[in-house]
Specification:
Blueprint lengths: L7 E5 L14 E4 L3 E5 L3 E6 L6 H10 L1
Antiparallel strand pairs: 1-4, 2-3, 3-4
Length: 64
């Protein structure tokens, strides 16, 4: 039986010209629906609840 599940969403961090976060510590936060870790290059959202499609998971993350 097919039961798709989105485990993580990955986002590439794009900064403006002259902005540099290379030496900044990673930031993490936990919400009801996901755990987020942000470093200088990537934001990773690990889903804590079931989302069957990427679009449904992104809708929750986009609100954040």
């Amino acid at each position: 039986m097919n039961d798709p599940h989105v485990e993580k969403l990955y986002y590439k961090v794009i900064t403006g010209e002259g902005v540099d976060y290379k030496n900044a510590p990673a930031v993490s936060e936990e919400r009801d629906n996901f755990k987020m870790v942000l470093d200088s290059k990537t934001a990773i959202f690990e889903m804590k609840r079931h989302f069957s499609t990427e679009q449904k998971a992104k809708a929750i993350v986009d609100e954040y």
